[in-house]
Structures are given as C-alpha cells and as structure tokens.
Amino acid sequence: MYLSWVAYNGRSAGMAEGLGIEPVYIYGGDGISLPVRYWRQWKQTGSMLRAKRPATVIVMQPPFFSLLRSWIYSLGSGAKLAADMHTGAFQDPQWSWATPWILRIARRRGNRVIVTNSALAARAEAAGATVLITHGYLKKFEPPASERFDDPALDGASRGRFVLLPLGWGYDEPIEEILEAARRTPDVEWVLTGKAPQSARDAASPNVVFSGFASRSDYQILRHRASVIGAITTAEDTMQRAGYEALEAHTPLVTSPMVVLKEYFGDVAVYAEPTAEGISAAMLAALAENDERRLGMASLFEHKVAEQDAAMKAITSWIAS
C-alpha cells in the first residue's frame, strides 16, 4: 500500500496507480491542533495496518511520524518499508531534524528510499540507504466532464487568460515576489491555491484570486483552463508537483532555474529568477508564446512517459522480491 497522512496527494495517487497498489489517506480531521491530529493519525494508522496486514508499505515523507508508526508495525509483521522522501523531508526546517531518522529506518533490512532526482539520491546513499529514483507516475490529463465550480467565485477568475500557482505557502516559495509580480501584470489574473495567510491577502493586488484549498473537482477545472502554470521555488534539488501537472495537461510552465528542474524540463519551460521582475517577465513570455509552449510540453510528456516505465518497474520488482 501507499500511505499518506493527508486528505489527498497527487504524487501519492499517481504512484499507487502506477504500481498497482492501494492508496491509503489518513488525515485526522480539521479544526484541531497539530499534536491532536497526529495522535489521531497514529492510532488510525495502527488500526488500519493491523486490519490490512500489508507486506509492503510505501510512506509519503514528511511527516516522519507516519513512517515511525509503519516501522513499529514492520517489526512485528516483517513488512518492507519505503520512505518516499519529498524534498521537504530533506530541506524543510520543520522536518530536517527527522531526516537522519528517516534514513536510519530506510537502510534497515530490505527497506528503501524513493526520491525524485539524483541529487537527493546522493544524499540518501551517503547515509547508507538503498535508493529508487522516480519522478512519479505521469498520465495524460483528462479534462473534467463538468466545468461547474463548487466555489462559484472561481468561475469568473478563470474565464480569461490567467496563471495558476498551486502553493503550499511553504519555506521555499517567494510569496512577496509573486504578489509583486502579479501587481506588475494587472491585465493578467493570478489564481493562488492553498491556505494563504491574511497578510498575503491584505498585500495582494485586485488581479489576485485566492482559491483556498480548492476541491479536487474545482482544481481540475482550474488546471484545464489555466493559460500558464507556475511552479516557483527558491530551493535547489526541488522537483515541483505543479510542474508535473503542467506537463500532464500540456500547459505552458514557468518555473525556477534550478539544476534539477532545468535537467527535467529542458528548453520547454520558461525559467524565472525568484524576483518580481523575473517572475512577471517569465509569465508574460509564456503567455505570448502559449501555442508553441503547449506543443513543447506535449512532446516532452510523451518522452517522459516512455522514460518512467523503467523506474516504476524497479519499484515493482522491489515490492515483489
């Protein structure tokens, strides 16, 4: 199974589908403190593992506690574990303290680490872990059957040309620069997802729409309509889920000029330095070259789908061993 302590995650869903295993999401609920939610997730995970008795558990990381609970289960069951380490498991200040513990569990008797790129693989291998590299499971984006939003406010914002920025409001996102870039492009709508702090809402120009945590159906409509998708980071060695989503939908992508991103997207993406000037100029370029960029993303998608088969087979072989 593929275990994630979130309500839903695109990488988790794709990996589970590509590997032919069950995705399990344990969220814990809204409106409660983080320690209480983690405690609920801990207990629910224990009950679920005892009931299902999986022989292999792939665990999205972070948070570390989901892997720790799975490791306790493995001690009695003999199950194999893999930590699917998102970049935050290495670099997010909230979770970097747990990195040595994740790798310690991952290097035990047949366990594995899964990462998205060779730079993160080198860090895990230096700690003695055996690593599998995959960018996840890409599949062609299917336009939603209905374009009726659960949140009607999103309909007007996404009727004309607009850029979609899926945000986690995390440590590596240049929020102030993104908001200033939007201010410099008043003729373009900017839709920012995720739980924006009030300070960002107060600082935003009128052409910025905050979707909040959009429902899955609303997010699919936004993906379908977006003129450009932005995946902006200040952190090296960071692959961007939004970049994969742009690739699947053949939507022009603006992302950061980090080594791993340039290696993966090549000259198909438009690269923006994480400054207001750089981001606004890149968005305008992607809008101006929209048709050409869509063709490039479509071609790259076909290439990457062919590439991913070997990576997924390596994980499947480990599961079966």
Task: Explain this structure.
The protein is α/β, with parallel strands linked by helices. The chain folds into two domains: 2-137, Glycogen Phosphorylase B (Rossmann fold), CATH 3.40.50.2000; 153-303, Glycogen Phosphorylase B (Rossmann fold, 3-Layer(aba) Sandwich), CATH 3.40.50. The chain is 48% helix and 15% strand. It has 14 helices and twelve strands. It has helices at residues 10-19, 34-52, 64-77, 88-91, 99-106, 118-126, 153-157, 175-183, 198-203, 216-225, 241-249, 259-265, 276-288, 290-320, and strands at residues 2-4, 23-25, 56-61, 80-85, 112-115, 131-133, 162-165, 189-193, 208-212, 228-231, 253-255, 270-271. The strands form two sheets. It has a six-stranded parallel sheet, sandwiched between helices. It has a six-stranded parallel sheet with strand order 9-8-7-10-11-12, with helices on both faces. Strand 7 (162-165), helix 8 (175-183) and strand 8 form a beta-alpha-beta unit. Helix 2 packs parallel to helix 3, helix 3 (64-77) runs parallel beside helix 5 and helix 8 crosses helix 13. The longest helix has 31 residues, at 290-320. The model has no long low-confidence stretch (mean pLDDT 95).
